[in-house]
Amino acid sequence: MSHTAFELSTHGQGLYEFTDTVARWVAGEGPLEAALTLIVQHTSASLLIQENADPEVQVDLKAYFVRLVPPTTDPCMSYLTHTYEGPDDMPAHIKSAMLPTTLTIPVISGRMALGTWQGLYLFEHRDRPHRRRVVAVLR
Amino acid sequence: MSHTAFELSTHGQGLYEFTDTVARWVAGEGPLEAALTLIVQHTSASLLIQENADPEVQVDLKAYFVRLVPPTTDPCMSYLTHTYEGPDDMPAHIKSAMLPTTLTIPVISGRMALGTWQGLYLFEHRDRPHRRRVVAVLR
Amino acid sequence: MSHTAFELSTHGQGLYEFTDTVARWVAGEGPLEAALTLIVQHTSASLLIQENADPEVQVDLKAYFVRLVPPTTDPCMSYLTHTYEGPDDMPAHIKSAMLPTTLTIPVISGRMALGTWQGLYLFEHRDRPHRRRVVAVLR
Q1: Contact status, residue B137 vs residue C33, Cβ threshold 8 Å
Q2: Do C63 and B42 touch (CB under 8 A)?
Q3: ipTM of the modeled complex
Q4: Largest CB tally within 10 Å, which of A59, B97, B98, C79?
């Protein structure tokens, strides 16, 4: 069993890929048969396994979720009460409920068992720049 | 490897925090490096990692998901067929598909690696009181 | 620790149960106390733990998510850009972000700790037939 933490810088809503960073750490631990668990230690960002072939997919994912969960300045969201941290804050909590906070990925012979087109992403839900912390355990 | 089960009483839709109950059990197992897996053994309740600082967030989460998945008595849900268990039943299944049934959390030195503002919640999707069972394994 | 892969054939959107296939493999590994991790190696299908009592629930789940994330031929989805792989492709990626790609399930005495009414499903989001690969590790 080993563990580490990754620090990721974000600059606005959207998907930030970090597949290679994680893959390198996993490979460095040896040719393990294991399970990798990741947790993002925030309630306004998510972890996603998503297509990494066409960047349009990432643009569209961001666009869809902004429409599904609009800023609290949008009249249709006027029933929300937790608005004092900015119009993107409560929508960020809603998206972080709806999208994964933790992921567990099988590791076979020291490699994550991801499909050909699958990458690992941090999905940032806030507008301003943030430092995000992802804790990982391999066992 | 050890396992246990937590029984939680709910009285209507909303979030019920049980971070401390889980943290005490984990700590009692010793200063482990491990992964904790939880499963809620029902298809009308979910598990969430969410902000535990401001209770408004929990009120707003409930309010958002009630609007996203209205009761089957709402005209916009008239296409649904599984309605004989009450107007909150099929929406509960939909929410339980959309929100986590299982969570895996890294454990470092006998403590869950949660962020400062993260708590562990059962999200009840039914209106009437229920007893909910959450099974946990630590390994 | 052991691992395997399951291949599932799908023929259009909807839920495909494979609880028994997984349960047989888990039981064959002995009376383990363990955690089972599954990953679907695609970004247009999901894994679900859902009610397996009444098949209406599965029909309604499919119907709800088709309305929440309509095909890109629907005018309300005209802002999406990743449309060249068919009207069901980008909605499939959105659903695969929203619904689980990985699941971890406690295993006690060689059996998955599922509730009485819980079954394990592949949720296919594409219209045409596909072969889907689910990798499993037990440890």
Answers
A1: yes
A2: no
A3: 0.97
A4: B97
